[in-house]
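Dear colleague,

As promised, here are the two records you asked about, laid out in our usual form so they can be pasted straight into your sheet.

NAME FIELD: protein one
SEQUENCE, THEN STRUCTURE:
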Amino acid sequence: MSKKFGVITIHGMGNQNPDYASALQNNLYEKLSGEIIRNLCFKSIWYHGGFQAHQDKVWENMLKSGRPLDQQWLRKFLLNFLSDAATSEFRPDEKESSYRRIQHTILRQLDALRIELGDQDQPVVIIAHSLGCQIISNYIWDAQHKKGIWQGRQPSEFQKLSTARLMITSGCNIPLFVSGLEKIEAIHKPNDLFKWYNYYDRDDILGWPLKPLSQGFQNAYDDVVSEDIEINTGWTPFSHSDYWKDDNFIAPVTDIINSFYGSL
């Protein structure tokens, strides 16, 4: 029997393993009913790939240089995190760029998800964290505007994520990537039933509300994002890493998925 809907996750910055979403999946499954679990297909997009090996090499070279560097722990932390962000946005028009490699990674997982959904354009729930919010937004934007890997190609409706009914972002840092633009536009709503819920913690310096980014025109963030929801995942800036294991996030996301499933 084919599944009724798919859940895809995409991770954020830092040294991520391929099983990065296992804790999130387990936490959700503890709260979702057996019926819902039987009718969903869970897929994780792991784009980190070779990033870490390159970052580790740069760090080793810095240490071997013999030049004194204070705050080494913080420097390495920032190197890993900020390098992910910079590399993921680098040279989007080049075929062999990291930007396009990441988009192809997303596409492969979407194609695999559709097969497991019985080759049907079933609804999709997107759960993204940190840099993953910007990356999945880029993917949808490019598919809608035939940019990136879609230059000269036509994505299917499922590949465009036109069946995405929910996008749930956490610790979202999209403002860091768009704040220098004169006109800040969000993606087009993939469909009339689409809802975008953005969770942030005021202590998380990398997580932001999105609706204030732009307003007053079609595809402004205030129009496309359904709700910015403040939660408490900790009391320090390091709360950025805690969304997917905190019940202040898991509980409302479970409620959203329950409500969504009831509408299918």
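NAME FIELD: protein two
SEQUENCE, THEN STRUCTURE:
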Amino acid sequence: MKIWTKRVLAEGEGLHGRARVMAMFAVALSVLLSVLDYAIANVALPTIAHDIHASPSSSIWVINAYQLASVSTLLPLASLGARVGFSRLCRIGLVMFVIASLLCASSHTLLELSLARALQGVGGACIMSVNIALLRFIYPHAEIGRGISLNGVVVASGVALGPTIASAVLSVADWPWIFLINLPLGAVAMLAAIVYLPRTPRSESSFDLVSAALNVMAFGGTIVGLDSLVHHSGRVVAIILLLSGLTAFVQLALRQAGRTDPMLPIDLLAVPDFLVAFGVGFGAFVASNFFIISMPFTLETLLHRSAVATGLLITPWPVGIVAISFIVGRIADNVPAGILSSIGLAITGIGFALLCFLPADAGNLDIIWRIGLAGVGFGIFQPPNNRAMMVSAPPGRSGSASGMVSVARLAGQTMGAMFVALTFSIVDRDPNLKCLELAACTAGLSALLSVSRLLRGTLHPSSRPGVDAGI
């Protein structure tokens, strides 16, 4: 299928047969490239810090630069995608990601590497800001849950494969090769994106550069300011950054008020179904980061496992997500998110709670099945909740909704990391155990919020503003 012969698809029309399979392959490979590289860099951080002569604390910016650039640019890029086309922005992101990977591999200082990682984060944000929006054109409306579930499988697979690939690469080559392997993968993803991704409608409105700058200042200032306060580094500067970020948020909200397709789509939060799904997603990822960050310390310090054993013992978390997602994807279009997501988060919370009661002499099997149970629950929660966000957005707002799905995830992960750091700083006795307790509580509260969808009567998964009203 040649790209110049493609017609523009209507939202919800979907592709069929081989066209759908190949389009989904292009999206999946693009998403995998973005997620995989983030996971690989985490594992390789100690080696990178040693080789570029950076301290452990300062080397964290190799990770933070990527995360901060991603979350700060997600919404502007989602808005840009609606104007230039979701497929085109995905291809732009792939080009940027590959170029940034080459720059990462050739970096010799922490500053060079951090800047290259920030560019890589922007490339990843181009992909992640439109990937779910593309699914609304690849899959018919009645089957969108399958596409979202498969997308979740790809993300979880990237997280699961990251440590293994990083260890394999570092065992035979220097750390720059963890970035160089992106070149052939990126080339294949680019070819697939050019040939198979569908053309999507474009918004006629102009791109608001001032709002984009305010968005970057808002997210960047708020996140860096909060992080600095938590880590007690430069309290005055941290407060200035935090206030600047909050001021930028207010200015951005005022500037965007009344627009039909705002860059900061807080108007979507006025849709009750969307607001609940966003809150559930945010809370769930806060809970997951309480677990993901603290559990390695629990395994090594309290349960006396080696670093290698710790990595293997955490693997059931992504494996559980991947394994159950195939099943959930088949029923997410027919069972309400208020049921599926609530059950999933309840199971996740139970898994976290059971980890709190691990005996000091716990065997590996005792650890594995508890972590696996939590992962299965998370795999049940995620696809239907993401689907609920996408289908509750008004028609024509796919880009904004897709961006908000990623914002819920990244903001939850970021706040979860900050809460972990805060817990470590204020809890003297068993802070790791306290983090697991907070993970269980947060997952439980998110499950209760998810149940509220049933109490409000939003039972049918296909309900969407404007659809039932015939708009």
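A couple of things worth noting about protein two: The radius of gyration is 21 Å. Confidence is low (pLDDT under 50) at residues 1-5, 462-471.

Best,
R.
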